């Protein structure tokens, strides 16, 4: 599985449960952080004073590495800068190489729209563009092309304004404690720890509603996803 994260903490809040769960189920999990979120998502670190961009980036890298280790993911930092994030062709091709090497079964990234954060939809755009290039026979012929990994948008901060509607719920109850530990590595954004715990509880209630009251499975925590590529199936049940 591949997670394309605009900033170095996004993957933890939005897909930490998916990473821990799939890792537990034998998947290889890789996270690409396009930036450290050093300007736009590190307010608490900047308020400490005596801060430089390099110091903030180093702190954010360390937090993300510790989180990824707890979740069981490999992490690669592209360090492209944030607010604004800009993705040159060289970085796009580096992401294509990640697809070709990893051959992911599915990809998680941001919502396709986010009026509060223009780095987020750009990350999703690049995740999808790299996926398509990685499928092209004529790109680096001789390498193994990728199939059609499913693409899901993980949950943004302001769902309604982002036109994000969950059509997939992932039961993360059994890995919740792991996700919470990974969340707690994000010292720069402590105000979000309980917020994203509440989100997981809410999505858990909704997930349960969608399997019906006769189901015996007890879901407490879930992550919501908006699948953006069609499902192809031979069984509609
Ligand atoms: Zn972000």
What does this structure look like?
Keywords: Lyase. This is 4-oxalmesaconate hydratase. InterPro entries: GlcNAc_PI_deacetylase-related, LmbE-like_dom_sf. Its EC number is 4.2.1.83. It comes from Caballeronia udeis. With 237 residues, this protein is α/β, with parallel strands linked by helices. The chain has a single domain, classed as Rossmann fold. 40% of the residues lie in helices and 13% in strands. The protein has seven helices and seven strands; from the N terminus they run βαβααβαβαββααβ. The protein has helices at 10-24, 43-46, 53-71, 89-102, 119-135, 176-183, 193-209, and strands at 2-5, 30-33, 74-77, 106-109, 150-154, 168-171, 222-227. Strands 3-2-1-4-5-7-6 form a seven-stranded mixed beta sheet, with helices on both faces. The radius of gyration is 18 Å and the shape is globular. The model has no long low-confidence stretch (mean pLDDT 96). Bound molecules: zinc ion. Residues 6-7, 10, 37, 41, 117, 120 line the site of zinc ion.
Average pLDDT works out at: 96
Instruction: Tell me how many strands there are.
Output: 7
Low confidence ranges: none
Instruction: List the ligand species.
Output: zinc ion
- How is the largest sheet built, in terms of strand order? 3-2-1-4-5-7-6
**Fraction of helical residues:** 25-40%
CATH topology: Rossmann fold
What is the architecture at the second tier of CATH?
A: 3-Layer(aba) Sandwich
**Beta-strand share of residues:** 5-15%
- Distinct helical segment count: 7
- Net shape: globular
State the order of secondary-structure elements, H for helix, E for strand.
EHEHHEHEHEEHHE
How would you name the CATH homologous superfamily?
Answer: LmbE-like
- Between the first and last Cα atoms, what is the distance in angstroms? 25 Å
Cα-atom Rg, whole angstroms? 18 Å
For the record, the CATH class is: Alpha Beta
Organism: Caballeronia udeis
Protein name: 4-oxalmesaconate hydratase
InterPro entries: GlcNAc_PI_deacetylase-related, LmbE-like_dom_sf
Keywords: Lyase
């Amino acid at each position: 599985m591949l997670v394309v994260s605009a900033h170095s903490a996004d993957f933890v809040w939005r897909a930490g449960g998916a990473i821990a769960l799939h890792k537990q189920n034998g998947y290889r999990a890789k996270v690409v952080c396009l930036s450290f979120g050093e300007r736009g998502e590190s307010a608490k670190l900047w308020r400490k004073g005596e801060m430089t961009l390099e110091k903030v980036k180093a702190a954010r890298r360390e937090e993300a590495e510790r989180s990824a280790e707890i979740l069981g993911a490999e992490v690669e930092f592209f360090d492209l800068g944030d607010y604004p994030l800009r993705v040159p062709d060289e970085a796009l091709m580096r992401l294509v190489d990640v697809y070709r090497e990893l051959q992911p079964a599915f990809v998680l990234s941001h919502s396709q729209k986010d009026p509060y954060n223009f780095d987020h939809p750009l990350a999703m755009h690049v995740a999808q563009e790299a996926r398509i290039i990685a499928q092209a026979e004529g790109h680096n012929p001789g390498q193994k092309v990728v199939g059609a990994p499913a693409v899901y948008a993980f949950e943004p901060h302001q769902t309604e304004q982002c036109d994000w509607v969950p059509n997939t719920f992932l039961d993360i109850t059994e890995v919740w404690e792991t996700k919470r530990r990974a969340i707690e590595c994000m010292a720069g954004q402590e105000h979000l720890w309980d917020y994203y715990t509440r989100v997981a509880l809410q999505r858990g209630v909704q997930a349960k509603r969608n399997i019906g009251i006769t189901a015996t499975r007890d879901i407490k925590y879930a992550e919501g996803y908006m699948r953006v590529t069609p499902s192809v199936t031979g069984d509609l049940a």
